[in-house]
Structure formats: C-alpha cells, structure tokens
Amino acid sequence: MIRYLLLLVAAVAANPALSHKASDAYLTLERDGTSLRGQWDIALRDLDNAIGLDANGDGDITWGEVRARHADIAAYALQRLAVSSGGARCALSATTHSIDTHTDGAYAVMAFAGKCPVAGPTLSIDYRLFGGLDPQHRGLMNLIENGNSHSVVFSADSPQRTVGGDTAAPWAQFSTYLNEGVWHIWTGFDHILFLLSLLLPAVLVREHGRWRTSDSFRASFVEVAKVVTAFTVAHSITLSLAALSVVVLPSRLVESGIALSVLLAALNNLHPVVANGRWIAAFGFGLLHGFGFAGALHDLGLPAGSLALSLFGFNLGVEAGQLAIVVVFLPLAFLLRSTWAYRRMLFAGGSVAIAAIAVVWLVERALDMPLFDALAAGI
After folding, report:
1. How many Å is the Cα radius of gyration of the chain?
2. What's the pLDDT at 378?
C-alpha cells in the first residue's frame, strides 16, 4: 500500500494543475464607441508550452527570451481572439509588452488596441487561446463600458460569448460568479483535501485513545454539519473582507498557510490532538482558506455595478460545490466505516497520503520552489 501512496503523492504533487491553480488568462477589454483598448495577461508557462519561449532549455524563462518573441506572442494570441461588433469583425493589434506576476507565477502582459467598423449594441467574442493544447484553460474577461464593468468566462466548452448591453445585468453576473465558485472549489485540490481530512473521522468516534466506528448516522451527520458550517462561516468572513480589500495578506503567506492547514488536519487523524472538536479547527483554518478563495475572486474581478450580488454568488457557488462533495462522501463513508478498506486504506492510508502531498505543497509555496522539478534536475 505504501508504494501506491507514494505514487499518488508523486503524481499529485508533480502536476502543476493539482498543486497550483489551473491554467487561466486574464483579458481586460474597454470599449468606447468603435474604439477598443485591451490588456491580456497570459502565463509564461502556458506560452512556453504553446510556442516555446525557453530558447536555451534551461528551465528559466528570462525577459530577454520573452522580448525576442513579442511578435510571436502577439500573433499567436490575437489569431485566437475574434471580436465583432454589429456583425463585423474588429481589427486588433498589439501595442506594448511587459511582464507581471500573479499568485501562480509570471505572466506576459500584452496591451492592444482595436477598431470596429460599427458600434453595435453588443460585442461578440470568440476566444480560442490554447485550443487543442489545454482543455482546462479558461479566459477570464472583464469588459469595461460606460464606466461599468462585468465579467465573463471562456472555456473549451464555451468559447463564444455575447457581451455588453443587458448581458451585464446583475443576475447575469450572479450566475457567472456562482459558476466560478463551484469551479473553484472543485478544482481547488488543497481546499478539497483539507475538507476531506476533516470529514474522514466523521463516521468514527475517538474513545480511550482509539478510533471506533460510529453507531449513528445522525451523529455522523451532525458532526459533518458542524465542520462544514464552521468552515463556511469562517471563509465567508475573510473572503468578503479580502475581496473588498478591507484585509489583504501576501499570497505566498496565504497559500503556504493553506498547505500547512491540510498537513495539520491530516496529521490530526493519525495522532489526534483535537478529536471531538474538529469544527474549531475547521473555523480557525477556514479563516485562512477564505483569503485563498478571495485570491481567485480578485483575479476574476468584481463588477462595481453588482458587487454585493456577485460576491454572494461566488460564495454560494463555493458552498454548493462543497456540499456536493459532502453529499457523495458521507453516505459512502458511513456504509464502509466498519470495513478494513475504510479504516486502514481510506482513513489511515488516505491521511498519510494527504499529509505527504501537503508537505510537498508547503515546501513549494513557502520556498517558491517546484520541489519535484528540483529533484528531477538533480537526478
């Protein structure tokens, strides 16, 4: 079993999509009549995968290597973005290039300008960046028009959107942010592993220094409800404070703290310090996870016209995604709670695997060093 756990740890920790957030690009588009101005932030790691920025193959993409490929970056990106107004395509051209840092690494920043033949009431956007290369990639676009902003999300399944006009209605924004909340919790593997670490003991009872199976589904349900409620209340508080810029923490501190919370929650299953009050740990660490959720929300951008509703939608989406995990987990866990497979493999073995993954994440985030890449380079 240890062999399989080590393979799982290596597979999860070595995969950037699992140890960090999935591939996103950030597109800001401002419209004034027939004129367009935009900025497109694209991760260097994604561009390197698409067009090969690392000229000398040393694993380090320098400013000089990026600068030498400005024309190629512009051509690659703009060929995969079509903007139309009134049924006629708008001409787009790159103006300036720079580098910026997001929470997950360095990004090429391309400013561009555009001119549309007519000023239609809406814009039709066709977004195909990294099409065929990364089916998980998403484009997060913020449209600014008449002093108002609203957000839309492009994916492999939804590459075409119509924006502007009444598409910026508050309920349309609510729907967008609701979907984003669900997406974020389902792709936030650190949040999921933290939640699972707290849920694994819910169908067990700690007595006389040992774990035994719970005799009551109701008691297990109440335990899960306390954990989930505490986690929800806590991260809702800090998510709102951070999204509104009332309290802001450094992203490295937040991400490292989240990894530490996963590690401690998993270790607590193996050597319980808090056995019957896990809701307290859920609340305490939930405050930290809220700052992590806020980072994703900040990248998407909050529309000024429907800020409160969009914030509520995102938070509600996080809760919906979280509850979906609980609804699947709890009945199965209770059904299997007395079996060797649950007690030894899922509970004990799963906690060991989660702790090992969390250690890798903690080292990577605290030291800003991809641990498995460093190990591979030393072999």
Report:
1. 23
2. 44
Strands 210-213 and 148-154: unpaired
How far apart CA 222 and CA 320 sit, in angstroms, is: 18
CA distance 52 to 67: 13
Q: Strand pairing partners for 205?
A: 212
> Per-residue DSSP letters for 274-334?
SSS-HHHHHHHHHHHHHHHHHHHHHHH---GGGHHHHHHHHHHHHHHHHHHHHHHHHHHHH
pLDDT for residue 39 = 96
CA distance 256 to 330: 29
Concatenating the DSSP letter of every residue in 160-206 gives: EEEESGGGG-HHHHHHHHHHHHHHHHHH-HHHHHHHHHHHGGGGEEE
**Which pLDDT value is given to residue 304?**
60
Strand bridging mode 138-145 / 24-32: parallel
- Side by side, which strands form the sheet with 91-102? 91-102, 105-115, 35-43, 24-32, 138-145, 148-154
Q: Residue 143's beta-bridge partner residues?
A: 29, 150
Concatenated DSSP letters of 4-29: HHHHHHHHHHH-HHHHSPPPEEEEEE
pLDDT < 70 stretches in the chain: 1-22, 103, 165-170, 275, 296, 299-307, 369-379
Summary mean pLDDT of the chain: 84
